Amino acid sequence: MPSSFRRLLIMNATTMIIFIYIGIFVNLYIWEQQRLISDVAWFNFVLFLAWGVSFTAGAKILARMSIRFVFGLSAISAGSAFLMLSYLHLDNRFLWITIIGLPVGMMWGFYAIAQNITLSLNGKGKEFSQYFAAAGFIGQVLNMTVPLMSAQVIRLFGYSGSFTLMLVLVTLMFIVSFFVPKISLKGKMLAGESVTDIFRWRKVFFTEASKWLIPSCLAAGFFLQFQGLFALLFTFSISLDKLVIALLNTLYTVSTFAALYIYRRYNKSETTWLNIAIALICLGFLLTLYPVSPLLVLSNILTTVGLFYFSASWNALHFRMISEFSALQQTHILVWRENLLAVSRCAMLLLVIPIKEFRGVSFWLLLALTMLIVVSILYFQKRATLAMAGPSSVPAGDKAGIEAKL
């Protein structure tokens, strides 16, 4: 793994602590007040809307500034969110959730574009799998420790104390941003290229393989948001005790260590791991049809392990696909890829807002739609793989050769 990737991992670890805290305890903070699925869904809707806008804005900024500046913007956005959580109090709950969600989404959007540009411009081949596997391992360690420590801080000092601690970590994130690789798109554009081309659809998906990224990203965004939202809400429905919630998240994390061991023990192709991931995710979703606590816990374990395999394989396949393009072409695809994910996440959240409980026709229909979309990802990735192999038809026995090319 190149040194730039190792330094990026340090930044990733620092930022992930903040992300994990927000993902669990800010959502719990919103859920506790009225216990409405719609409140949590609206917070996440605003978050991902801001995510897509800031990701695109970050791409334009990188045409003039380095990723250090964009990482700094991410830290400033995070700081703004925790300051408002600490001191902003409004009678209009809808407006309050909106104002909190905006800087959280900006933090994630700016961070995502800076990380993705670093990966796409500096990585190649197996380095992508190595990075995502290492990032996944660090993430699992933090997923096990951060919730437990955060729960204790909230128990001793309340939410206000935990928000203050997060402000300290945001300051550390801002300091670390000065030590990441100084990379930008400036000087990497070809003659006649302009950053405004980022927004031109026809210049983005210009190969047959890249066109299949469109439905793949839309499908992935929909199911990722369903899994992320309901894994949280299922956990919250079991208990509102912070320590119990932290212990359950630790259980989910421990289960992924076994998954990581298997991932490293068996040298399978990304396509094989993607198949395994989707099978585990669908099985986990089916268990939610009978929403009792033991089955909800088992469902979360299966979908969390499936999500680990999915992230390692699906992301690696995409980054390999675009790694041979020019800097601006990679930026084109990454911007649209992130926006497609954000759009489908938002679409899923809009469907969730009317749902009142984890049963009934509305929930079951959404679950069935999500499972259908999950399975469709296999088809989209297969078509992208065949397109990368060349215009000629590929014999059935040559699948291994196609995957080696990827």
SSE inventory with pairings:
Blueprint: H1 3-34, H2 37-61, H3 67-87, H4 93-122, H5 127-176, H6 208-211, H7 213-238, H8 242-265, H9 270-287, H10 293-322, H11 327-352, H12 361-389, H13 399-405
Helix pairs in contact: 1-2, 1-4, 1-5, 2-4, 2-11, 3-4, 3-5, 4-11, 5-8, 5-10, 7-10, 7-11, 7-12, 8-10, 9-10, 9-12
Transmembrane segments: 9-30, 42-62, 69-88, 94-119, 131-150, 156-180, 212-237, 243-263, 272-290, 361-380
Protein name: MFS family permease
InterPro entries: MFS_trans_sf
Overall description:
- This protein has 406 residues and is an all-alpha fold.
- The protein is 79% helix and 0% strand.
- It has 13 helices and no strands.
Q: Keywords for this structure?
A:
disordered C terminus, 79% helix, mainly alpha, 0% strand, 406 residues, 13 helices, single chain, globular
Measured distance between first and last alpha carbons: 18 Å
User: What is the 3D form?
Assistant: globular
**Poorly predicted segments:** 391-406
Work out the radius of gyration.
21 Å
Q: SSE order in H/E notation?
A: HHHHHHHHHHHHH
Instruction: Tell how many strands the DSSP assignment holds.
Output: 0
Question: Counting H and I runs of at least 4 residues, what is the number of helices?
Answer: 13
| Overall mean confidence score, pLDDT | 82
Derived from helix and strand composition plus strand pairing, the structural class reads mainly alpha
Percent of residues in helices comes to over 70%
Q: The biggest beta sheet, please? A: none
Beta strand %: under 5%
